[in-house]
Amino acid sequence: MTDRVVGHGLVNAEGQLKLEDRTKFTAGVKGFAGKRVTLTVEDYKSQRSLAQNARFWKICTLVAEAWSVGRELPISKDQAKLVLCKVFLGQDETPMGPVPKGTSGLSVEEMGTLMTDIESHFAAQGQPLPLDGY
Fold first, then answer.
1. Taking CA 87 as the corner, what is the angle to CA 97 and CA 99, rounded to the nearest 5 degrees?
2. pTM over 0.70
3. Mean pLDDT of 114-128
């Protein structure tokens, strides 16, 4: 289970929310059955948010730390980012060879999906990332 569900929609004049993908949102929310939750409504941004950027770099730092255990030379968060982007976003071809796709052009939803995919991968491997406060 993920620790967050993101949905997008439109609020009408009566304050009612019409979700763009209610089925997907409802399926995600079911994972919180019986739990007290916090709901936040904010203006939609097409580009990733500063909070998402900070959270992504925290993920990269945690992954670098995990991958550095037992290594003489530690893995940097920048190296971890490159590997994560290659694995979860794919690569672009250049005349000098493939390069990992970057995160700068990702939308809020795409960035959220990327982080959820990374977290789910590590959780499935028995290495959940401690992201308390992010």
1. 20
2. no
3. 93
